[in-house]
Amino acid sequence: MESQAAPEPQSSSAAPRGAGVAPVLLAASGVSKRFGPVRALDRVDFGLRAGEIRALMGENGAGKSTLIKCMTGVYAPDAGEVRYQGRAASVGSPREAEALGVSTVYQEVNLIPHMTVAENICLGREPRRRWLGGCIRWRRVREKADAALGRLGVDVDPGREVASCSIAVQQLVAIARALDVNARVLILDEPTSSLDRDEVARLFGVMRHLRSQGLGIVFVTHFLEQVYAVSDSVTVLRDGTLVGTLPIAEVPRRRLVGMMVGREVEDHRPSADANAPGGPPRAEILRAEGLAKRGMLESVSLRVEAGETVGLAGLLGSGRTETARLLFGAARCDGGRLRIAGRDVRLRSPRAAIAHGIALTPENRRTEGVVPHLSVRENIALAVQARRGLRATLSGEESRRLAERYVAMLRIKTSSIETPVGQLSGGNQQKVLLARWLATEPRLLMLDEPTRGIDVAAKSEILRTIDELRQRGMSILFISSELEEVVRVCSRVVVLRDRRSIAELEGGELSEAAILNAIAEHQPANGRPGGGDA
Amino acid sequence: MRSPLRPIGEAFWSVRWPLAALALLLAFNAAFTPGFFALEVRDGRLFGVLVDILNHGSRVAIVALGMTLVIATGGVDLSVGAVVAISGAVAATLVAQHGAPWPLAMGAALAVSLIAGVWNGVLVTVMRLQPIVATLILMVAGRGVAQLITDGLIITFESPPLAYLGNGSLLGLPVPVAMLAGAFVAFGLVSRRTTLGLFIESIGDNPPAARLAGVPDRLVVLLVYAVCGLCAGAAGLIDCSYIKAADANNAGQLLELDAILAVVLGGTSLAGGRFLLFGSVIGAMIMQTLTKTLYMQNVSADIAPAPKAIAVILVCLLQSPVVRERVRRMRGGGGA
Amino acid sequence: MATAVVLVGVFAAGAFRYPHFASWAVVRNLFVDNAFLGIAAVGATFVILSGGIDLSVGSVMAFAATLIASLVERHGMHPALAMSVALLAGLGFGALQGALIRGFRLPPFLVTLAGLFFARGAAFAVHPQSIGIRHPFVAQTLNDTLSLRFHLGAKIMTIPCTVFLLLATFGAAWVALRHTRFGRSVYAIGDDEHAAGLMGLPVARTQVGVYAVSGLCSALAGVAFTLYQQSGDPAACKGLELDAIAAVVIGGTLLTGGVGSVLGTLLGVLILGLIQTLIAFQGDLSSWWTRIAVGALVLLFLGLHRGVEGLARRAAAGPDGRG
């Protein structure tokens, strides 16, 4: 582990370009935070200097957002201290952190859509008159907004309604608002996740501009290329611990990916002695070419044959879930082609996809998967009944038999099939979802993170079930951030990065190292012509 | 082993709190209201305060059944009072002014109510208005439509079959009670024997999950509002039959409130999800018993809404997640 | 602005059809007869802008009116004091509703529905019948001395103080919504409550405040109604909340909150009044057409909102969507 654990500013941060002794603006030393039995942060050190852009990276659950929340007063750390411009302080709210010069802009832009840019920048801290019952001085509001936008070096009409601006501009307005309180440190939490390339470039321009004014910026992102494009240094967290903080120039991509996933990426491909691809060609179940949706997915191509398990691999935010949603009709694509069983289709709703024999267990089990107050039996029967329609119903006896069959087959642990699903453990909820879709006897089963948040025993059971299903001839699209699982279960893997499919690995060339290599090595395609209103 | 009686036992268990409230009210009356439980038989028909409560409670309960389904999808129907007025107006006008036979009049009244329900459903599913807003329109305009039909007059009619609905008796009990029983059985069968109940509960409990599971959510919601309109129409028939007249101005006044409160009292969450048809019937009877108790305690009909409102707010507070969370924490703290 | 177009259109239609429609008397009566509705609609505007709804308006008005009449006539209180008591009661009642909604996360329509029941019952509990007010302060000082008289040719036109009360309420509400932090918070919460919270706005305080304002406005409308009728009737103003909400919607305020203005509400109230006047002029049309017309107008405006929203969304996505 290459942790640079020293809390002292001299060594905790990589030297920013051209700055000799830039002051440390924000420093955390030995910060720990627990949530019940889960250790979200374990003695993490962090230091940010003036004029530095620091990328903060890590996979899901690495502790990025916990660290940010400890530094902005949303959480109180269990141990360790946070220093603001050298002064130790315990802040109880984001407002207090703002007063100490640390402002945060979140991923989902939090602005009031039907108010103007100027109003949004000043909302809640409008200059008021001393007399006339504290009426707002609108001219001063406008001036403040102009100044704030000018500081960013962006040209936006302060009188424009925020809802009519593009997301990129809204992001800039949110940044202007954040800086309006004399911020010295700006934390940007995944600011680029819904921007296209031109918009990202514009945002980077603003970030560099702010850096030149001596601000420190913490930049949370999942996009490798963006880290290299804009940041001076990078801090990597994994499983709540600090992996390391390094100047970006000193970290090759491969090493960065390795730091994030916790495995060294060897620079050689596995020998080709593993079982080579072959066998008779099988029927094609699904083929997607250049699947795209603005702000969601740029271009993904993949195919699934009968009786094979295809994996979708990539870092967080690479477009895995988005691909599944487009293939299931949960979102409508605006580009690319989709063929199911050899015929061109457009999926307008999940019902259409289900009619084609496609099933999806969504990534977010709680909000999109289980119906918590309904029983195990009802949850299992739901999709079958939805497919049959309103009248052709299962009798109570049939649905009971169906539920009992799958409870036994998937070894779902529940006191009875009439227990509300909300009372089951995560792993068993996942199995109920699996049962719901297996009961529809789909041609293609898409599993989005089926093993997330469940214990080890349940994990291996689910993986074993997937393998059994494949042996019985079902096609499976398997999505997981656990590369080891992907390699174990899948016969072919499509690798995604930055919302594009960039490689396909199968047979002997399929290994964790090969996937990581593909993610790290791929050079981005040249920016496509996007028409942002920049 | 499943005993055939088990579903009935479960039904009673799930409404134990509303039942307890009802029992408490009845116990209060047993102690303090003389003559509350007196029953007598005249002309092969039961009379008494309890029969009265059943009779009038049934009208609210029928509307509450439809409302239960709407609320279970996470919506609400504010227009039922107006639909009651329209339904009564259609039936009375057809019989009294156009000499239509009573089956036609009833059929027409129910058909118009169904259309009103579909109208609400279309506004909710196609125009995607919030349910409160969508049904508010008919709540505002519906009474005007009813008055338009009756020309602003109180239309009285002489039609023994139509009057039978509100005044006759079946097996010694008032006809509305039998209608409620019929409606309850029909609702119970439909929600148990078809997928509709499952779909409604899944839509109310977790809308995105229901959609991703392929539930035809729009169709179901549309259907539910249509059924609610139909229920209001049936209540409107009883209403005009009872007074042998259609009073577009007062028929079904504040009925939406009683129906919603009956559903809430019955244990169905306003947030949607699991619904308890039996609970709503009990809830309607609680409302009616409360009203009757207040009257018999010499609280005037005008003042009675105030204590009812307090009771309802108290019940809602007990149901609110904030209070439940606090109670759970207190219990947990005590146990630790 | 669609509301203004409708207002002018309705007025023009009236003026075109009926010879005496376009007269100062009609305009005066429009304000006089709808003053109390207008004041109530101001409160409703606050609530709806914040994304809530208040169904207790009519009942609170009746309660306030009955309370004033009862205090003055049966307990010998000075009307000015009685009115202050009623206003305070309205304010407190509204704040209580707001606290229940905010504190226990109960749906606004349910709490205010119960409030509707409660206030109506309470009004009857104060006094079961209508009470006429004969106190000279009301009959002479307020309704006579504090009225403006114009000489229009041979006729004398009187503008009673309720109209000034109406205009003052609208003026105050306009300033409060447009030029104070409280007002801006109301808009922000109605538009996006989550974002408003993250932007550090006092969400809870504002939400309770909005219902308190609505309670106050309802009580004030009750005062105006008392002056208008010179009596307090516990059965008065049934269903007035619907007219108030309709006026707000016709005035262009989004029922989901965040967009709209109190100025639009004033126009909405005038449109409702004009429709009533038109139907009265027609003579052979019955008053229930008013309700249907109001319902149709509400639907029309809701449809307009939806359409505009859709267009705006498409416009925002448009230039980039082709990329």
Summary of the model, kept short:
The complex is a heterotrimer of chains A (534), B (336) and C (323). Chain A has 534 residues and is an alpha/beta fold. Chain A is built from 18 helices and 20 strands.
Explained architecture:
The complex is a heterotrimer of chains A (about 525), B (about 325) and C (about 325). Helices cover about 35% and strands about 25% of the residues of chain A. Chain A is α/β, with parallel strands linked by helices and about 525 residues long. In chain A, strands 6-7-8-3-9-10 form a six-stranded mixed β-sheet, sandwiched between helices. In chain A, strands 16-17-18-13-19-20 form a six-stranded mixed β-sheet, sandwiched between helices. A four-stranded antiparallel β-sheet of chain A has the order 2-1-4-5, covered by helices on one side. In chain A, helix 6 packs parallel to helix 7. The longest helix of chain A has 16 residues, at about 195-210. Residues about 1-20, about 265-280 and about 525-534 of chain A have low confidence and may be disordered. In chain B, about 55% of the residues are buried. Chain B has one domain: ABC transporter involved in vitamin B12 uptake, BtuC. The mean pLDDT of chain B is about 85. Chain B is mostly helical and about 325 residues long. Chain B is built from 15 helices and six strands. Chain B has helices at about 5-15, 15-30, 50-70, 80-100, 100-125, 130-150, 160-165, 175-195, 195-205, 205-210, 215-245, 255-265, 275-295, 305-320, 320-335; strands at about 40, 45-50, 155, 170, 175, 245. In chain B, a hairpin with a 2-residue loop joins strand 1 (about 40) and strand 2 (about 45-50). Chain C has about 325 residues and is mainly alpha-helical. Chain C has a single domain (about 1-305), classed as ABC transporter involved in vitamin B12 uptake, BtuC, CATH 1.10.3470. Helix content of chain C is about 75%, strand content about 5%. Chain C has helices spanning about 1-15, 25-50, 55-75, 80-105, 110-125, 135-145, 160-180, 180-190, 195-200, 205-230, 240-250, 260-280, 290-320, and strands spanning about 130, 150, 155-160, 230. In chain C, the strands form two sheets. Chain C has a two-stranded antiparallel sheet with strand order 1-4. In chain C, strands 2-3 form a two-stranded antiparallel sheet. In chain C, a hairpin with a 2-residue loop joins strand 2 and strand 3. In chain C, helix 11 runs parallel beside helix 13 (about 290-320). The two termini of chain C are about 35 Å apart. The model of chain C is unreliable at about 315-323 (pLDDT under 50). Chains in contact: A-B, A-C, B-C. The interface between B and C is large, with 46 and 45 residues.
